[in-house]
Design goal:
By secondary structure, this protein is α/β, with parallel strands linked by helices. β4 and β5 form a beta hairpin.
Length: 314
């Protein structure tokens, strides 16, 4: 699989340990009907089964097999294939899975922030591009936005779709135009995996092992690794702490506390307040504001000149 990015940072696609053993063969969301497999390279396929179960995969006359480990995960490689399709891929264990409409061509991972996430229908000329987007040999896969503190064995959602006006409307505009141009140039199937999230930082897409090599990230990564529970559980716990803080004295706007003059009172004496140069960056002018998140009161006196009276219209 190849990847390109609309920003200047790389993206790592992580595959972690498998979930608990499954009674029958199961495939990840990325391995399914309508998918595109990368041409000219050995094809890695993986999934889950009962521990010790033998899994055989047959594709275009070639067969490979693997044995599921104690954790139920299996992985194998099929021989490299030339571009073409559609084909059928069979996975056989205690049960049989037959994937249909499988293509072989070029697969790209499109990653980035909001400029990569921007949907085709909202771009200049987008409605016309959507209407014309009937490309049966271009396949789309959108990875849902979901944050986790640790690599997950499976995606939270997503499925391979044939490129049609209905499926491409909300798909990455950059990825679509990129894939369409490649398909027209090389005349081979193209698979596009869009894994983008507006506003995300590069370190959110980088493995913990890579970040630990950088001194500035060792502390935050260690703290993250020490947390328990999913991000959903952590967010719920944070919401509880936030509500408790907002109801405490420390969570109140200090300029509007009852029993004392409000800081908005024009008669309030502010001779003890610190001065600030404006325009300017607030954080750089006071040590108290460098890492401060909250409410800052600012008072500025202005002198407004008197305007001459307006003459009545004749």
């Amino acid at each position: 699989m190849r990847f390109f990015s609309c920003l200047c940072f790389s993206t790592t696609l992580l595959l972690a340990a498998s979930p608990a053993a499954w009674a029958t063969v199961r495939l990840p969301r990325l391995v399914n009907s309508h998918m595109v497999l990368q041409r000219r390279v050995p094809l890695p396929l993986w999934g889950w089964a009962a521990p010790g179960e033998t899994v055989r995969v047959t594709f275009r006359g070639a067969t490979a097999q693997a044995t599921a480990g104690p954790d139920g995960r299996w992985q194998l490689k099929l021989p490299a294939q030339a571009a073409g399709g559609p084909f059928e891929l069979e996975v056989r264990g205690q049960n049989v899975i037959r994937l249909t409409d499988v293509l072989v061509g070029d697969v790209w991972l499109a990653s980035g922030q909001s400029n990569m996430e921007w949907p085709l229908r909202e771009t200049t000329g987008g409605p016309a591009a959507v209407t014309a987007a009937n490309h049966p040999t271009i396949r789309l896969f959108t990875v849902p936005n979901r944050a986790e503190s640790r690599p997950q064995p499976e995606l939270a959602g997503g499925e391979w779709q044939v490129c049609t006006p209905q499926s491409v409307a909300t798909f990455s505009a950059v990825a679509y135009h990129f894939g369409r141009d490649l398909q027209q140039r090389y005349q081979v199937p193209v698979g596009l995996i869009a894994a983008e999230w507006g506003g995300t930082a590069a370190e959110a897409w980088t493995s913990a092992e890579a970040l630990l090599k950088l001194p500035d990230f060792r502390g935050p990564v260690a703290a993250l690794q020490g947390q328990t529970g999913s991000f959903v559980e952590q967010d719920a716990a944070y919401a509880i702490r936030l509500r408790a803080w907002q109801q405490s004295p420390a969570g109140q706007d200090q300029g509007l506390l009852p029993g004392q003059p409000t800081w908005a009172d024009p008669t309030l004496t502010t001779t003890t307040w610190k001065s600030m140069q404006l325009p300017g960056i607030w954080e750089g002018q006071s040590p108290e504001l460098r890492d401060f998140d909250g409410i800052v009161w600012l008072r500025r006196e202005l002198t407004l000149p008197l305007l001459p009276p307006i003459s009545p219209l004749p």
